[in-house]
Amino acid sequence: MAEQYFEASAPSESLVEPSVATAVTPTRKQGLNIYTVMLVISFLSLVIGTIILFTEFNQFGGWDTSSAIPARE
Fold first, then answer.
1. Angle at the Cα of 68 (from 64 to 72), degrees rounded to 5?
2. Is the pLDDT of residue 43 over 70?
3. Residues 6 or more apart in contact with residue 61 via CB below 8 angstroms
4. Which whole-number Å values give the CA distances from 42 to 51, 52, 56, 63, in the listed order?
5. How far apart are CA 61 and CA 55, in angstroms?
6. Helix %, strand %, coil % for the chain, to 5?
7. How far apart are CA 2 and CA 9, in angstroms?
8. What's the predicted TM-score (pTM) here?
9. Cα–Cα distance between 8 and 17 in angstroms, integer?
């Protein structure tokens, strides 16, 4: 096999570090997207559902199991 030699070339513009002037330019903060809104809606639904479940559970005696009828053996 023959050896291949490659010449080094100057780095392309994309590989050169950006200058300080371009690195300091402020960027605008990204707004809410649909996925963030869906995440907030699902979190609120879980919290509201948990509160409703807790109030329904307390209507039927809550955590007191002393009046429960034991199972047959």
1. 150
2. yes
3. 67
4. 14, 15, 21, 28
5. 10
6. 40, 0, 60
7. 22
8. 0.49
9. 19
